[in-house]
Task: inverse folding
């Protein structure tokens, strides 16, 4: 999604049976109210600065990895 947003959005919309609209790529310009914790994030384009920030928390992720089991592996390869 981060490296090729347009292709991923097109693929997602195709899967959902929805038409592609150029405004899907300019979501941050929508003026509707956002009532979620991510309200500030949806007002900015997709950015790459945070891609690997999760790695700072990797030492504490082992219990989650074990709980996910094969689901995690399927996600990586799917």
Result:
């Amino acid at each position: 999604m981060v490296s090729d947003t347009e292709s991923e959005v097109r693929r997602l919309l195709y899967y959902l049976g929805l038409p592609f609209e150029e405004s899907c790529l300019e979501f941050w310009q929508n003026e509707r109210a956002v009532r979620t914790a991510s309200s500030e994030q949806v007002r900015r384009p997709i950015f790459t600065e945070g891609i690997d920030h999760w790695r700072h928390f990797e030492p504490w992720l082992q219990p989650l990895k074990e709980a996910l089991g094969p689901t995690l592996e399927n996600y990586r390869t799917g």
Summary: Residues 32 and 60 are 37 Å apart (CA to CA). The two ends are 15 Å apart (CA to CA).
